[in-house]
Amino acid sequence: MDETSTPETPAPHDGGSGGPERPGITRRGLFGLVGVGTAGLAVGAAAAVGTAAAVDAATAEGDGSGGVHPFYGEHQGGIVTPAQDRLHFAAFDVSSTLDRDGLVGLLQDWSAAAVLLTQGLEIGEGGAVGGSDYAPPSDTGEALGLPAAGLTLTFGFGPTLFTDADGVDRFGIADRRPEALAALPRFQGDALQPAWTGGDLAIQACADNPQVAVHAIRNLSRIAFGRASLRWSQLGFGRTSSTTRAQQTPRNLFGFKDGTANLKAEDTALVEEHVWTGSGDGPAWMTGGSYLVTRKIRMIIENWDRVQLQEQESLVGRTKGEGAPLSGGTEFTEPDFSATGATGEPLMPTASHVRLAHPDQNGGARMLRRGYNFVDGNDELGRLDAGLFFISYQRDPADFIAVQRSLAADGLNEYLRHVGSAVFAVPPGARPGGYVGSGLFA
Amino acid sequence: MDETSTPETPAPHDGGSGGPERPGITRRGLFGLVGVGTAGLAVGAAAAVGTAAAVDAATAEGDGSGGVHPFYGEHQGGIVTPAQDRLHFAAFDVSSTLDRDGLVGLLQDWSAAAVLLTQGLEIGEGGAVGGSDYAPPSDTGEALGLPAAGLTLTFGFGPTLFTDADGVDRFGIADRRPEALAALPRFQGDALQPAWTGGDLAIQACADNPQVAVHAIRNLSRIAFGRASLRWSQLGFGRTSSTTRAQQTPRNLFGFKDGTANLKAEDTALVEEHVWTGSGDGPAWMTGGSYLVTRKIRMIIENWDRVQLQEQESLVGRTKGEGAPLSGGTEFTEPDFSATGATGEPLMPTASHVRLAHPDQNGGARMLRRGYNFVDGNDELGRLDAGLFFISYQRDPADFIAVQRSLAADGLNEYLRHVGSAVFAVPPGARPGGYVGSGLFA
């Protein structure tokens, strides 16, 4: 019942200021602030009124309802942050008329808005509706009264931001592109659709309330009007991985626990080694950042549902109920790839997903996954258009590529179709007063 | 964090029975029940193992996480039930080869499965995987470990179930069709798409966890295999109406509170008068039922977001912050349609949505609304494909028709596009041991 925690409704036009002000509990009503501000119609300008002081006081409550994750920091949020329950992911293409200053301005406006949104505040706080009812509201309003809901906003840059499809360096940044940031190679079985692939810019919004995530993407899209427009966007529910040990392993739409062996935030040495870009890894502006891969993977669930249980378990390499490896033990027992059965066959089948994806089979390649299940209605044959919106963060996309190539032999492929793909460089977190990605333009 | 309430994970293949058994807290693992049952591969047959005794013990906890609403009762659940946070709605077309006995069998199998699903139990409990690993699991598994999450399943019959598009009475029920159940007339501005319109059968799944709602529709679709297939389906979040006074009024994607003046379950006389079909209203098999209207309403939110605040409020007839009528007062003050401003113009504008939809302007017509917001990605122009999945329950669809005709003058129409529409007869609740809609075939 996370929508209903407004303890008090501000009176119309005369005071959200009477409402509770603790960050993360409820958002103050912009509609109560008429006459306070001086900002005009420019949403970007209004959003740029930051509240860095409030950020310092913000705390991550971690109770799933009203937690606040600060926007500013060494790393961006939404990577090792405990995985929230809901996703709205958006990829943008920049306008052909945008120049370097315009791109910087967009990132500044997005950052300023993100400071407010992640605290559960409305866009335009301090400027609100321009001092007048005779202006469009700075904030679209549908999250008014809702808590911050643990919202994180994570920004990324696609390869086409650096050099567009025609080879043009639109923003004078082509020579700053990290070598690691390049379009992914074609993988066996790829059935990619342009409508779900690529993008110059990306924003991942994760929250424990879908309306909060949607509100964020909507308002950030609105702020980008004329500068960047949505290329594709995806809602997700039922996260498929835990990013901390405190979270139970959730299930994907094959009905199996997903992410048992995922990297966890507590594994700080492993996170340092496999998630964060180090100072020797490429351009300095990416130090403390990461690389984000998305794959929209449709599951052919009607066919899967006709597969016998033992075969499902063989394909995955784990039991369906407990999630234990077929070599024995319980969920968190390490798989034993050398264990064999009575007739000498490996207990972890050679074509099993868990075996093929395991770091031991991929030269130690690891990534931090934080995907979500999706259902986008159904197709014309009456099959649910459902599957996994895979998201991974890694120090180098080469790790993803290595694992994905191994998975060419995955028996699960018969029930999967990769329809979307994208890769983004995720810069480090913004410093108070700065903006995300500022190092790229320094 | 409603996904993560499994207090204990059953050991693989040897006992969900060790887990907690209180209905509504967690679902028992079907995977622990190997060897217990005797049911074979027929999912329908396995599902038909009902647990009426457990239903009697079920309670509606109402805390939004683990509540259980009993499937059996005088009325179907999901109508006056406190509106849950998430929706998966599905419309089905029956197979051309289905006969009357087959239709009855489908409704029996769906009812038996609904008894289990609404308690947070797996499909096939008591039969499980057929006593063997060498069968497809009876349940698809993705809700294993999740609570019932307040799930309700509400079943409806479309006009085409009684007489198909060619005028054929496939099931010998044409003469039992209620007069009130007919395709809705065309309304001004309708832009209906077949892909979102009509259907022989409907299931509304509402729950406080999207994975639980999706799991229910997926498994009910699976049970229907060969008998009925999905025509369309819709996920929704952020309910737009409260059905009880204990719920705060939520906001639609125009940013306004929606459903302030909705009927509430506590208004028992009004609910009796406006929601439930009475004994004199039509065929006896519908007594205690209702009529369900769905409208998929896309909102042109990018245009809306450029409308000044005062104009937005004039179009709606309420303030955006508080939701008070423009004639004064607070959210729950009744609008005063006779109140005028300094220059004699009505304070509640004549083209305002609230005025045009009000019972006083529609011969007393009222309905119980329980719609949801939706975002289905974005269109090719980069605009969010977002809006309101409108759902209403009424004693007679004529009430919906009257209000919708009034709304032809609604100033909001410039920002709305009705792309889907359907109407269903919702029979009364099933009695223990019976099945939903049994009266139609008696």
UniProtKB/TrEMBL annotation, chains A, B:
Cofactor(s) demanded: heme b
Family in the record: Belongs to the DyP-type peroxidase family.
The name this protein goes by in its record: Deferrochelatase
Extent of the signal sequence: none
Function: Involved in the recovery of exogenous heme iron. Extracts iron from heme while preserving the protoporphyrin ring intact.
Dyp-type peroxidase N-terminal domain mapped to chain residues: 76-237
Disordered as annotated region, ranges: 1-24
Catalysed transformations (reactions): heme b + 2 H(+) = protoporphyrin IX + Fe(2+)
Source species: Agromyces seonyuensis
Record localization: Cell envelope
